[in-house]
């Protein structure tokens, strides 16, 4: 259901205030062919009304001829910033970049953040943004979880469906996604609400069962019959099951890249306002599925790169998979029990 410009401008102002935007700071709104016009228009008004110096940088899309999905997170190749020194200079010279394009998993993003520029990604449809405006409580909850991850040496995940996964930790630090950027050089994604890290390279092992009702992204589908992943030495070495498993195997084969099968980020959802059921209400073209990634108590794991966490693995393949009903343990402490976050 649509929202009014007034509602979205107020939502932007809330997020920009949490992000400590001050009058006189420079904001660059990064856009491309898929940018939602209402999100853009309201971002321009909100930033100007708060006294910022506002630019818009519109870049032509890339990768459309290579990707099999229209989802902006499905194919992680070069970005419109690759080799684009003028655009990178403009973003580095900004205090805040509002990424309405999707720059995630690119070396250019790291380069810009290192200069102290903050980047806030916002590509979900306007009504999802307005429903999931972040709060300070979100930040507190997510930071408490990342602190636990940062101190842990191992994550173990189990489920009644048969998941039994072991992920040694410590090589890569934790990442907190709470939906706003309140520190220089911080990246975040509105909406979100989860804590994650990456397993030590080539060490994750065990079995992951993607059960009925669990979600595949970017497929944006609820699985109808279990898919069993065998995980050895940090990679999914077998993908078994019925039609859903065959569809996943076929999609992943299109990338022709063994690195796409690596276990990527692992963590759990901490956003009580995000819902497991939302994805079923949306056209696949209309959302990237942040409700599915963030709903409270899901175990979210991913296949693909680890460069976003500080590793060296890059691959164009990236699949996010939230599982319900899991128990997640950090060393001896249970942080999620049967799909519910332990307070
Ligand atoms: Fe992911």
Automatic annotation (TrEMBL):
<dbReference type="Pfam" id="PF26233">
    <property type="entry name" value="NicX"/>
</dbReference>
<dbReference type="GO" id="GO:0046872">
    <property type="term" value="F:metal ion binding"/>
</dbReference>
<dbReference type="GO" id="GO:0047075">
    <property type="term" value="F:2,5-dihydroxypyridine 5,6-dioxygenase activity"/>
</dbReference>
<keyword id="KW-0560">Oxidoreductase</keyword>
<keyword id="KW-0223">Dioxygenase</keyword>
<keyword id="KW-0479">Metal-binding</keyword>
<dbReference type="InterPro" id="IPR058739">
    <property type="entry name" value="NicX"/>
</dbReference>
<dbReference type="InterPro" id="IPR052170">
    <property type="entry name" value="M29_Exopeptidase"/>
</dbReference>
<protein>
    <submittedName>
        <fullName>2,5-dihydroxypyridine 5,6-dioxygenase</fullName>
        <ecNumber>1.13.11.9</ecNumber>
    </submittedName>
</protein>
């Amino acid at each position: 259901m649509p929202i009014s410009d007034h509602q979205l401008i107020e939502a932007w102002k809330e997020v920009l205030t949490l992000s400590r935007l001050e009058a006189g700071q420079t904001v660059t709104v990064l856009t491309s062919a898929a940018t939602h016009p209402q999100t853009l228009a309201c971002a321009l008004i909100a930033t100007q009304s708060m006294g910022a110096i506002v630019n818009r940088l519109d870049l032509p899309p890339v990768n459309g001829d290579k990707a099999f999905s229209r989802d902006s997170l499905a194919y992680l190749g070069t970005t419109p910033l690759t080799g684009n020194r003028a655009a990178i200079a403009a973003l580095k010279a900004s205090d805040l970049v509002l990424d309405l394009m999707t720059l995630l998993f690119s070396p250019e993003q790291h380069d810009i953040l290192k200069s102290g520029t903050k980047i806030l990604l916002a590509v979900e449809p306007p009504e999802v943004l307005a429903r999931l405006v972040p709060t300070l409580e979100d930040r507190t909850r997510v930071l408490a979880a990342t602190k636990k991850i940062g101190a842990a040496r191992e994550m173990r995940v189990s489920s009644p469906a048969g998941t039994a996964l072991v992920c040694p930790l410590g090589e890569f630090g934790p990442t907190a996604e709470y939906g706003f950027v309140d520190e220089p050089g911080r990246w975040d994604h509105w909406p979100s609400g989860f804590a994650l890290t990456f397993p030590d390279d080539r060490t994750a092992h065990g079995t992951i069962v993607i059960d009925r009702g669990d979600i595949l992204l970017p497929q944006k589908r609820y699985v109808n019959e279990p898919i069993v992943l065998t995980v050895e030495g940090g990679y999914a070495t077998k993908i078994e099951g019925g039609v859903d498993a065959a569809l996943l195997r076929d999609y992943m084969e299109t990338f022709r890249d063994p690195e796409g099968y690596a276990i990527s980020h692992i963590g759990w959802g901490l956003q009580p306002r995000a819902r497991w059921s939302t994805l079923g209400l949306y056209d696949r073209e209309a959302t990237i599925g942040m409700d599915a990634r963030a709903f409270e108590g899901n175990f979210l794991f991913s296949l693909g790169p680890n460069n976003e966490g500080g590793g060296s693995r890059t691959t164009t393949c990236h699949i996010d998979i939230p599982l319900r009903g899991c128990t997640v343990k950090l060393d001896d402490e249970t942080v999620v029990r049967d799909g519910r976050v332990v307070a």
